[in-house]
Amino acid sequence: MGLVGSTLRSGNYQVLWGATFLNWNVKWVRGYTSTAELRQAMERGEVDMSTFGSTIDIDYLVKIGKFAVVSQSRTLKDGKLTPRPTLGNAPIISDLVRGKIKDPQAQKVFEYGENVAQVGMWLALPPKTPEAIVTTYVKAFDATLNDPRYQAEFTKIDPDSPVASKADLEKLVHALAKVSPETLQHLQVELRRQGLAN
Question: Considering its fold, how many domains does the chain have in total?
C-alpha cells in the first residue's frame, strides 16, 4: 500500500478500516509521491494494493488483468452517498464493516474517514473574511461548476465522479469541523498501531 509523504491519502482510509475491522493483511509502504508513481509501482509489483479515485486509473489497472477492485467508498451526489457505477459490484466499505465496529468512538472515526474521502481538494476562506469577498468566491465557485467547458473537461478526467455541489461541500466541511479531539486522538492511536504515526 502506498502513502503520499507521512499522511493518509483520502482513499487510504478504506485500507485502514480493512486492516482494523476486516483483518486485511496490510503492510504499509511509504514514499510514493503521486498517483502515477503508485500506479507504476503496482505494475512493477512493488505494491499489490492501493487506492485510486480516478476512473481512468482504475480502468487501466483492471484491464491489464492483474488487479481487481476489492472495495469502494461511495460518491456524494445531490446530498446522497451512492455507489460508483463503473465499479460494478465492488462492495462498499461501509457495508463490509457494518456490525463489526463495536466501539462508539471507532464508529465516529470511521464516519470522519468517510467524510474526508468525499472532500478531496477544496478551498476555504479564513474566519471573519468580509462578506463581500465570500460572496465573490461563492459566485465564482457556482459559475465554475455550471460552466459547460469545465463540466466537459472534468468528465474527461473522471466521468464517474460527480462534482460536489456547494451545499454538499458545506455539509461535509461543517461535519468535519465538528469532529471532537477525542475522535482525532482515537484515529492517531490506530495510525500508530499500524505504524503510520509517531
Answer: 1
